[in-house]
Amino acid sequence: MSKFSSFSDRIFTLTLLFITPIVIIIALGSAAVAFPSQTIAQRITSPGLTTPTAVPTPPASVEEAPVIIPVPLPKNPLPDISNPTNSSSSKFATNNANRVFSPGERDRIAAYLQSQNVNSSPAVNNLADPRFILHDTSFIMSPSLLDRERRSGRGPLGLGVNAYLPGQDATVVARPNFYELRRPTTTEFEKASDILDRQDREQLLRQAWKSTTDVARRQALDTALANLDLSPAEIATEKAGAIEKLSATSGRIFTTATWAVEGICNRYNNGDRSVAALSQENSLSRSCTPLGDYFNIRNSRVKSSVAVEIIQVGARSARGSQNTCSASNPNIAELPNPPYSDHQYNSATSLYLRAALASGKFPQATTHFALDTFDPEAHCDPRCFNLTKLYNSIASVMGHPSGSTYGITPSYGTKGGTNNIWWDNNICHGSAP
Predict the structure, then answer these.
(1) Are the beta carbons of 138 and 318 closer than 8 angstroms?
(2) Exposed e or buried b for every residue in 385-402, given b needs 16+ CB within 10 A?
(3) Stretch 147-166: mean pLDDT, rounded?
(4) Residue of 244, 267, 258, 285 whose CA lies nearest to 201
(5) Closest CA to 226 of 174, 182, 162
(6) Is residue 246 a part of any domain in this protein?
(7) Are 176 and 286 in a shared domain?
(8) What is the CATH classification number for the domain harbouring 371?
(9) Edge-to-edge strand list for the sheet holding 172-173
(10) Under 8 Å CB-to-CB from 14, ≥6 apart: which residues?
């Protein structure tokens, strides 16, 4: 699949913004959809993503007991650190991911960022598992498109990416507040699609919306878009799009609509029964019970992640296959040799250290390829990226021993669930590192 399918979806959504919504009138007594805990357990144990998690015996009635969605283990577990708050670096090569750094290391990072004219990001507190997610665009973004992303990097607008790394030009920081909760997701992992797949999730979101009073809907949309520096026109556009999607019988549901339903379910799950429409409290309960746990997992992933897109070519032509993850696809545009410039690796180093300074520890460097292996339409980016080179660059700046790492252990190849850096010798111009 094209790396920018989500971008196309958003453009398509905007073109349909003012189409009259299709309103479905549901009988008040219609049965709501419930999802057995066995199904959720299967998603939690998706191959390559999580390890088996015990799920309670399913209750006799969903109305009597809520569906419990356990938080799964990350696909790439962080190193087993006996003392996770240990801030002393080792004289031996080690995986530093999730290690709290020392005051001296903090000063070293700050000095380096200053030397590179890189602004720091606001600090976050109590971030347990920070991630630094590497993507490639699989699409050459023009300066005007990059500038549009920079200007639209607020709330639900744009692609949700923190920064873009061109081959030679300056890094474009679209969202300077790293570890930002209120942004669009950039991976299916962040969407928590392994917990509730898209079809089930959208069914529950629509069920909750249709079971809610008009007043509660308006309040939820107002709250979802408050304090995000959006113009009145942007707010109106987002509200109209969310209402259209939630009122439809099918189709993608995007950020603002998801946030609105989250607000409704938060109120209901906290005891506010006034949000339920007449005779729809049972229906709202059946949707908000699993959604409440789902939102907790989704939010924990979004707010602990920094997304970085490295500018890279995609397909040769819009007419042929857009699958840039298939090494046999003749329509893949030829990648530069080497695939990424030293400038891009240096930019990635600076952004990684900026993310570290914000979280107070070394985040887990990972890839879109590694995180979304459970997705049938899994992405493979960043293709042909030398993660070993990035690790060596970070270690050099920090004065850490040669061979130090800062996240996933690189496994180069094209097999999802086995490899975490997509690498084909022909497309990548040589053997893997």
Answers:
(1) no
(2) bbbbbbbbbbbebbebee
(3) 97
(4) 258
(5) 182
(6) yes
(7) no
(8) 3.40.80
(9) 172-173, 163-165, 305-310, 131-136, 364-367
(10) 237, 241
Average pLDDT over residues 63-77: 46
Q: Residue 272: give the domain boundaries.
A: 5-19+190-300
Q: Is residue 403 part of a domain?
A: yes
What is the pLDDT at residue 378? 83
Residue 175: how many other CB atoms lie within 10 Å: 23
Residues 266-321: pLDDT tens digits? 999 999 999 999 999 999 999 999 999 999 999 999 999 999 999 999 999 999 99
Check whether residue 144 and residue 231 sit in a common domain: no
Evaluate the omega torsion of the peptide bond into residue 338 and state whether it is cis, within 30 degrees of 0.
Answer: yes
Gap between the Cα atoms of 163 and 106, Å rounded = 22
- Average predicted confidence (pLDDT) for the chain: 85
Answer yes or no: do 260 and 353 share one domain. no
Q: Are residues 111 and 174 in the same domain?
A: yes
Structure-block tokens of residue 90: 């080792």
3-state SS, residue 212: strand
Same structural domain, 175 and 307:
yes
Three-state SS at 38 = helix
Handedness of CA 48, 49, 53, 57 (dihedral sign): negative
224 and 368 in a common domain: no
Q: Where does a domain end: 300, 331, 366? A: 300
Residue whose token pair is 């300074």: 357
Q: What is residue 376's predicted lDDT score, i.e. its pLDDT?
A: 86
**Residues 206, 292: one domain?**
yes
Residue 130, SS3 per DSSP: coil
Contact between residue 35 and residue 196 where contact means Cβ atoms under 8 Å apart: yes
Residue 183 has which token pair?
């942004």
pLDDT for position 377: 85
- Of 300, 326, 358, the last residue of a domain is 300
Q: How does pLDDT run across 383-398, given as a tens digit for each residue? A: 999 999 999 999 999 9
The tokens describing 94, both together, are 């080690």
Task: Give the total number of structural domains in the chain.
Answer: 2
Q: Is the pLDDT of residue 102 over 60?
A: yes
Lowest mean pLDDT among 4-18, 86-100, 227-241, 403-417: 4-18
Pick the closest to residue 37 from 10, 76, 68 (CA basis): 68
The pLDDT-based confidence of 10 (bands split at 50, 70, 90) is very low
* Position with higher pLDDT, 378 vs 372: 372
Residue 89 in domain:
no
Is the residue at 201 inside a domain?
Answer: yes
Q: Tokens 């919504």 appear where?
A: 21
Is residue 41 over pLDDT 70? Answer: no
